[in-house]
Amino acid sequence: MMINPASLAFDIDGVVADTMGLFLRIARDDYNIMNVDYENITSYLLEDCLGSKIDKKIIDIIITQLIDGNYVQSLQAIDGAPEALNKIADAHTPLLFVTARPYPGPIRDWLTETVGLSHSGIHIISTGSFDKKTDVLLKHNVTHFVEDRLETCFDISKAGLHPILFKQPWNRERHPFKEVESWNELTALINF
Ligand SMILES: [Mg+2]
Predict the structure, then answer these.
(1) How many A from CA of 102 to the centre of ligand 1?
(2) Could you report the average pLDDT of every consecutive run of 10 residues in the chain (192 residues)?
(3) CA 150 to CA 108: how far, in whole Å?
């Protein structure tokens, strides 16, 4: 399987952006929650896996902070993502990002400032819900989508698209999809 860069699109949170890492830093710095590690995030639904350690109200407040960019900590890129995305952008632009965030918020500037992409080289679509991703991908002739939420992989697969699961502690159930553990592994699949 070699992927045409023009047919590839990307989720953002958990794939390009270390959003869960930021969640944990905000929990630690702003709410003094010290007993949660990245590996404890074993479900995409944070209250399912962290509910015994963090009050649900605080989880919701932090998620709102994340979406609005209302934090002083920095959102880090996932290891290797900036280098890989810039290499892919050399082969094809604009890069298409499809996120279930309700609005891009801080993400557009983050992709240029932290990931080093150009404003004209990115196209961000925020769907506001997971189940709208498939239609957006079909409309943009995407064949391969890099995603960390396993349920979304099943959804887009049903529409005949090829999900590529980006390995994270919250997607460790059995699945039939191509899986990558790093951006190096992903770029090895691309036909540059
Ligand atoms: Mg994600």
Answers:
(1) 13
(2) 94 98 98 96 96 96 97 97 98 98 96 98 97 98 98 98 98 98 98 94
(3) 25
- Looking at residue 144, its amino acid is H
Q: Which of 159, 151, 156, 170 is nearest to 9 (CA)?
A: 156
Residue 145 CA, ligand 1 centroid: distance in Å: 11
Cβ-proximal residues to 135 (8 Å cutoff; 6+ apart), any chain: none
Q: Which two tokens stand for residue 96?
A: 């298409």
| Angstrom distance (rounded) from CA 48 to CA 56 | 10
Q: How far is the CA of 75 from the centre of ligand 1 (A)?
A: 14
Class of domain 5-18+76-187: alpha beta
For residue 57, what are the contacts with CB-CB under 8 A and spacing of at least 6?
Answer: none
Contact 165, 153 (CB under 8 A): yes
CA 120 to ligand 1 centroid distance, Å: 23
